[in-house]
Write a structure and sequence with these properties.
It is globular and about 40 Å long. It is built from six helices and eight strands; from the N terminus they run ββααααβββαβαββ. The longest helix is centred in the middle third of the chain and has 15 residues. With 170 residues, it is of the alpha+beta class.
């Protein structure tokens, strides 16, 4: 298991093909996908293909990571950084099974990813985007230190763009 980050309650590691059944199930929940613009995986094999071909770690040195509960070893979702080539920015993103919402896991893993982005990757800033109706996700971005930057459209839906710059060097 290639653990990238550890928090008090969570382990974040690279995706593995063996995670496919979990991500297939996660993306079958319409509430989980409600504000993402993503379609569910049509088959378990499509989830396997996605994970097998996920190349962000090799291309960028980071990516989205599987989030595991430290206490039980349960896979509860994913969180991580994604390079957005079209705008040359790095985005903080997360997605969790509903039974793990409102427990602080997105904020806890998100803060760890922001810290990693600045301390290890030396990023100049990190962005986060959410559809305006996704109050929970907006709250997570704010709890991770991101500040509203501008309104935008995501998937043709009114959305917000948040941003956090790296702290100035002393």
């Amino acid at each position: 298991m290639n653990i990238i980050l550890e928090t008090e309650r969570l382990l974040l590691r690279e995706f593995e093909v063996a995670d496919a059944p979990h991500y297939y199930e996660l993306n079958q929940d319409p509430e989980v996908l409600r504000y993402t613009g993503d379609a569910p995986f049509p088959t378990l094999e499509s989830a396997v293909d996605f994970l097998r071909n996920y190349d962000h770690y090799q291309q960028h040195g980071f990516g989205r990571w599987t989030v595991i509960l430290r206490e039980t070893g349960e896979l509860i979702g994913w969180c991580g950084l994604k390079y957005l080539q079209d705008v040359d920015e790095v985005d903080l993103g997360y997605r969790f099974f509903q039974k793990h919402w409102r427990k602080g896991y997105a904020t806890e893993s998100g803060k760890a990813c922001v810290r990693y982005g600045f301390e290890d990757l030396k990023l100049p800033f990190i962005v986060g985007r959410a559809m305006k109706g996704n109050i929970g996700s907006i709250r997570v971005l704010e709890n991770c230190g991101l500040i509203w930057w501008k309104d935008c459209l995501l998937e043709d839906q009114p959305s917000v763009y948040y941003r956090i710059p790296a702290a100035p060097s002393t």
